[in-house]
């Protein structure tokens, strides 16, 4: 019972921890370790909302590399005329405009009068709300202007705009953060959930050669035949998409070929459990948020979409998944529903006949934390951990404007055995077709093809070190020998017990 409690505590912790993409509306990031990615736990943070200094609005400030704004010297205010027909003239400190002459008159610039075109008599111009100045010949409104400050505060005693702070970084906004001096940051705050802020990246080239070409009547391939062909694969380490504490490239499970031990049974069992847990977590969350409902029927547990009333899926009665989904229906709230659903699932799952539960739970923590890992990623991680893959490097899997790459992906060429990987790594540099570096391509465009028959014949296997593979064979042989010894000893013991008087 103690083991069950421990595992359930782990799942409760998972359900109660929000992934990074469910954080506040805006975030910012900095590549602190200078590796080209903004994907570690302390490189992406939530922005804080503060009032804009000397402004009526508020905004979000990035807490990375905040500095104090500088106090600029006082500046002249902007003077605007209250009458929109007038313009403020600095030289005269007045609001002025050109005079407007009445109908049938024209302005005489020399006499500074309006002259009737027919009679030649003069008349004063129309100045609207202002007064005509005969000395200057313009209309003025001496006291009808306002003092405005684009930034800072107007001081009527000095007639200047004072307390003007600016960000020494250039275009940064100064915020009142509670201290004596406003602050700013060189990093912009971005809504990382807004699709418009995502930089669309081309998908990686995961195409590979398939055994689907034409064959003759005897089944012989008529096209190009490749030996030890690999397949491009990838997995995402901690980052924005999978969660900062999740690692889709980490695997406790390994696989071996027929020469070095057992096959895939443990991995398959663990992977099946992992994806059942993922489904339970998903449907539990939907039920907790009200998007779906769950009810028991004669055939099992049915989940129904709340908006349409349509059946989403059905789980067999008495199954682990059915028990988990029904447990979620009795909980309150999204997180509580997920926790209850996982507890309901594991309470049925864990029994003396269940195998590989520990492995499944360890992998499930990584799958359910954050946005989860894809099936192909778990496969790539297990193949890599088993020594079946050649590492190509990292590529950017998700990029956000103004922040950078927030999720990287490790890329591999994976083979169907460790020996195939060893031969490919040490054989490629021997051939001109691949070049001295092996011609593996790049993380974005892997080149994982195998050898043609002609290329394979040219390989010098005396230069290929298979020590790593032989070591696995010896480990497997030693285990087999131990098994044989135990069977012999057991047989001798049984024979002795049956024949003694």
Strand content: 15-25%
Number of H- or I-type helical stretches: 9
Mean pLDDT: 78
Note the main sheet: 4 strands, antiparallel
* Total count of strands: 28
**What is the total domain count?**
4
Helix/sheet category: alpha+beta
Across the major sheet, the strand order is 8-9-14-13
Silhouette? elongated
Note poorly predicted spans: 1-24, 258-268, 350-359
Radius of gyration: 38 Å
Tell me the distance between the termini. 45 Å
Provide an overview of this structure.
- The chain is α+β, with helices and mostly antiparallel strands.
- The protein has four domains: 80 residues, no CATH class; 71 residues, no CATH class; 233 residues, no CATH class; 36 residues.
- 28% of the residues lie in helices and 23% in strands.
- It contains nine helices and 28 strands.
- Strands 8-9-14-13 form a four-stranded antiparallel beta sheet, with no helix packed on it. The protein has a four-stranded antiparallel beta sheet with strand order 20-26-27-22.
- The protein is elongated and about 120 Å long.
